[in-house]
What we know:
Blueprint: H1 2-26, H2 28-46, E1 57-58, H3 64-67, E2 69-70, H4 74-81, H5 85-104, H6 106-117, H7 121-132, H8 139-150, H9 155-162, H10 177-202, H11 206-214, H12 219-230, H13 232-244, H14 251-257, H15 263-266, H16 269-278, H17 282-310
Antiparallel strand pairs: 1-2
Helix pairs in contact: 4-17, 5-10, 6-10, 7-10, 8-14, 13-17, 16-17
Amino acid sequence: MSSTSAITTAAPAEGRPRKLLRSYWRHRYFIAMFLPGFAVFVLFTYAPMYGILIAFKDYHILDGVAGSEWVGLANFHSLFFSGSDFLNALRNTLVFACLNLLVVFPAPIVLAIILSECRWKWFVRLVQTISYLPHFISWVVLSGILFQFLGQLGTVNALLGLFGLPAQSWLYEPDKFYGIYVLSAIWAGIGWGAIIYIAALAGVDTELYEAARVDGASRWQRIRHVSLPGIAPTISIMFLLQISHFLVVGFDQIYNLMTPITQDSADILDTYVLRHVLTFDYSQGMAASLFQSVIGLILVVIGNRVVRRLDPDQGLW
């Protein structure tokens, strides 16, 4: 009996590799389409992770990563306790990140709801076209436009002069940089960001709106009780993705808008890393970049748990 049972249990185990190979051969065309993308993902996402070791070494480019001296957490210690540049960059990054979540992130949602409630199709198409355009323009060009409009002799100051108001140095005052950042971020991204929410609103059942109208719901009540719950899953996913990039606040935008006068208010972790890379201090730069990535990972895990607590059917995983 024991020998017979051993044969019967071993037979399926021996057949599993063959079944697996037959399954691979049956789906070989799908696998062939998948492999190039997977190879690119591994090459540009996982392979560079070897460079994380630089954050724990006194890296010299001639010695390489393996040949550089191991210093443990010394680079991280110097980030927080050797000078105030990193702490200032971290503070500014946190301010910009909070502004992104509180002001910039809801802006596409508001635009999508407004456009979905508008009955003038020509107006909707016009607003969509105008709001999409800045997304396809480089921040080098967009910052040049902003400097032309907000400069000392720009259009905005010319309009202020018509009303007898004094000219303002909009881009050369540190206190005004946060407002310029928020407005320019909304200007550049609101149209493109609204695409996802417009698509989500298109998927909301129209019978729910009809039922709300029959019950006497106002337009605001329909938005609150039908539109927003209908796109809540999309909002939660986009919110989690935003949190995962919490400390990534737009290097191109800030680097092109920053001036020597506003550097203290505009300096962020990405510009801090760039300065250290340009001075060949790769270890400090990698330590700051790794800190940025770890905080983003922790925040997305916490955010996903919070979303799952509120609604078990939502979340990234």
